[in-house]
Fold this protein.
Amino acid sequence: MAANDLPLKNITVCDFSWVGAGPIATNILGQFGADIIKIESKSKPDLLRAGYPFKDGKFGIERSGYFANRNPNKRSISLNMNMPDARDVVIRLIKKSDIVINNFRAGQMEKWNLGYEDVKEIKKEIIYVTMSIQGDEGPHSHSAGFGVTLNALVGFTYLTGNPGGEPFGTGTSYTDHIAVPSHAIVGIMAALLQRDRTGEGQRVEVPQAQAAICLKPLDIMDYAVNKRIQQPLGSKDPNAAPHGVYKVLGYRKWISIAVFSDNQWCILKKVMGNPDWSEDDMFDTLQGRLDNQDVLDRKIEEWTEIQDGTQLQYRLMESGVPVGMVQDARAVIEDPQLAQNDFWAHLDHPEVGITLYNKVPMRFSKTPAIMETSAPFLGEHTHEVLTDFLGYSDAECKELEDKKILD
Amino acid sequence: MDKYNNNMLGDVRVLDLTCGVGEYGAKLYAHIGADVIHVEPVSGDPLRNKGPFYKDRADENGGLEFLYCNIGKKSLALDLSDGEGKKIFKKLCKTADVLIESFTPGYMDGLGLGYETLAKINPGLVYTAITPFGQVGPYRDYPFSDLTLMALGGLLFMAGDENEKPVRACGEQALQMGAAYASVGSMIALYHARNTGEGQFVDVSMQASVATALENAIQWYDLQGVNRRNVGVEAGLGPYHCKDGYVYVIGAYGRVRYMWENFLEWIEKDGAEGLDELKDEKWFEPEYRKTDEARAIFKRLFENYSKKHTKSYLYEESMKNRCVVFPVSSGKDVFENAQFNYRNFFKTIHHSAIDADVYFPAYGFEMTAIDTEIKTPAPTRGQHSVQVLGELGYSEVEIEGLLKGGTVYGGK
């Protein structure tokens, strides 16, 4: 599929977003053909450029894998937004853009006179996307925060942990990765559909905390209507037993098993060879298995911990029990199923060479996602965008450069 | 600015065939004002029977997850295994822009209602399937659960320190990720269909969805050969006890001096004692802060202070002092949070079937020209069957026959 046949081939994004959820959202738009023009500054690069891991462990702002995975298929221009004249470049870019997006702290765009009210004056039909942590209004709208603190605020951390233990969370800034970018894209696509009919743009606000809660509403609703404060369950489930993570042979190797029905329990027993302990009446029903799951889990682990996990996984998969190895990154990369999902792409980069990127987790039958160019060098496309796209002459570019506006 | 009150995209019709997995995907269309019809079995969507329930009363109209995922949708209870049912469904597909289902691969083909068939009826249709592993590949027919997909997708591994067993994310996130991507993918494909008339099949894999959420773990392995887990523990970073639970503290970050200095200044001013020990130069070094010694010292000194205060107090004070201490919120804390309440984020909708006002998180995004708040409750089983059949041109007599024959359920 050539880029000029993709769904978003005519869409240009003026992308002020950095670090987390914003670049993930624009990465998705780029995979479907949008022209993403990422605005950075040499004096204040995207923080993730300084984030581990680096190729061969050697620091360098063009060597970060953390940055690279979120920013393929983008063009990078360097603009020092603290120089008043930089705004003129941005104005030209906005005039040629469909979408302006940022995930700064509330108020940052306004400081540059680039809030929605300003941008609307520049281009009436613009779609203006803002993704601050807690929304632009309210007593906590200016709170600083990180992905992990947002996860704590919205309740992931509290409910993800062992019963009675310390709250843990997913080990990542999970809300950045799915909840926020997906809600942003839904808002963007709706705004595009509407603009194409009415000719009018609008502002789309994605308060990151709200988007996050929308993917985990039940603990809050349960409190609101039942006054129950849900508690963490480790890896257990109220509707399944056995349900958990069990040791298998090897360093940091576990297998997950989830038995929801009596039928699945019978299959599991059979795969285990119907040991005497498993025939105890107390395990016959789901309620019985739930009531006695500590015993059950211990017995199952005695069985799993002396086995090769991958072989056991295939036996259980073939038999019909929900199962999966707790795969680390290496196992995910080598996973035989993901290899069939058109999920991975290897891209060459002038400094780090060929590295691995993942695509969207979706295969489109007519317009498959593209992954063509590796993450850009900071400012790699400044000259190209300014001249070919925004109509600056070489002399004007030189002048901007001399005035340190392109730093 | 005037909102169009959801009329503008009201001609976008979505058929939602999801049953228990991925139901949030089509709900996002209801937020933008599309016409979403949940086509459920005559016996009802199984999600109706999943708890927790309103007031803990098991009731097919009281399951909180069902209510949440289905507000703003209509319900057509239709038997797709029945010949007449298939005819109705095909007619309905002619009027639809998007279809979202989460059956096992091949299930709709088995009914004679697979993508190839439906695309002949409506070439512009966007057909989106959410499955555990996608439509192709060696695992496609294997059983799954949220836990096993989190495991195979690689996110479960990260939820643990060192050699500890991992813990499962709350809220069945593998399924939510599939739903979220079904929305994203189908909307991009819908945009394409509106511009070109060309529909297509969108194959969403939940395992692959999970594998997009590994932060930088893939790159850690690819670039440095390391299988990373949790971000790691260090003094001044992570959960600490307070009076009524835990707060999440980021007092130190790399070698950023002002953060640590600012943090100590605030808690000292607010009564924390013995902090001189934490002012030594070595505390600016992440390597030192990761040691057991540093972690124990910080925990003792900080918790002496933090255990005197609530999470809410520490959060508010930290903000005033430009520090980062967040509450580790329970469902109750989130519900009572001042910011969310200021923004009217939790709203009620009246569900007459259970005669109750149920609270919902209202929306994950807000728009100036589309009202993303949904005001109509989740439907009862088959609540809109008669209406939908009427719109498709069935006469009253025909509808009566379909109801009696059991092809359609139209409510009590």
About this structure: Chain B has two domains: 13-214+343-409, 237-329. Chain B touches chain A through 142 residues (CB under 8 Å). Residues 7 and 33 of chain B are 7 Å apart (CA to CA).
